[in-house]
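Work Package 4 report. The design task specified in the project plan requires that, given a folded chain encoded as structure tokens, an amino acid be chosen for each position. We show below one input record used in the internal validation round.
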């Protein structure tokens, strides 16, 4: 399906690949969404250092991604997000209630499952701090109605795996017992990343994960 953007008439395509929606623009922007919790933006290298906003500056410096709309660097994610509101009518983002406090019976299970980030990804720890990802994994897994599905635990671990891939540290973490929904192949695309295929039937549908 081909569509025209309203502003500058640049074309983009929208297609389904397995359980993903992939939007590709001719300007060099690709958006991949699993219609749940996984969201990935790819931008052509020509935009390096030329963008700003909630997705960062694309300047290969993670330390300045929380740059507010005013140009000032802030430390709070909430403060950062609220500076990028499109209008004053939009309410401020507020701190979410800790999901593990809402479902305390799931906390110990969530911590056990998410410990894979601490145990299996040790070789990546010097490149990418695992603790924020571990904390997010625990919170997300506590929030799930049933643990271990791709909407919480698997997506949270995959987010750390993706960050490690970008740092050129590659960990094979999926097993028949852990997030076995995906069959992952190791391929080269811009940088070394995991390309996952939904199943053998869709072997020609490559998805970044």
């Amino acid at each position: 399906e081909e569509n025209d953007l309203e502003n500058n008439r640049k074309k983009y395509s929208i297609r389904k690949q397995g359980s993903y929606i992939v939007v590709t623009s001719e300007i060099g922007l690709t958006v991949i969404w699993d219609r749940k919790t996984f969201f990935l933006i790819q931008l052509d290298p020509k935009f390096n250092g030329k963008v700003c906003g909630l997705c960062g500056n694309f300047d290969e410096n993670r330390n300045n991604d929380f740059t507010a709309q005013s140009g000032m660097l802030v430390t709070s994610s909430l403060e950062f997000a609220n500076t990028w509101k499109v209008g004053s009518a939009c309410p401020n983002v507020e701190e979410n209630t800790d999901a593990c406090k809402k479902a305390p019976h799931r906390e110990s299970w969530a911590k056990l499952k998410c410990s894979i980030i601490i145990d299996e990804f040790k070789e990546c720890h010097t490149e990418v701090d695992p603790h924020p990802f571990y904390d997010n994994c625990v919170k997300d897994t506590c929030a799930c109605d049933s643990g271990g599905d791709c909407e919480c635990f698997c997506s949270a671990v995959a987010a750390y795996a993706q960050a490690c891939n970008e740092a050129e540290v590659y960990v094979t973490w999926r097993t028949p017992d852990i997030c076995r929904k995906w069959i992952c192949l190791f391929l080269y695309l811009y940088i070394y990343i995991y390309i996952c295929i939904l199943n053998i039937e869709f072997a020609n549908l490559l998805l970044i994960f």
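Residues 182-209 have pLDDT under 50 and may be disordered. Validation will be extended to a larger panel in the next phase.
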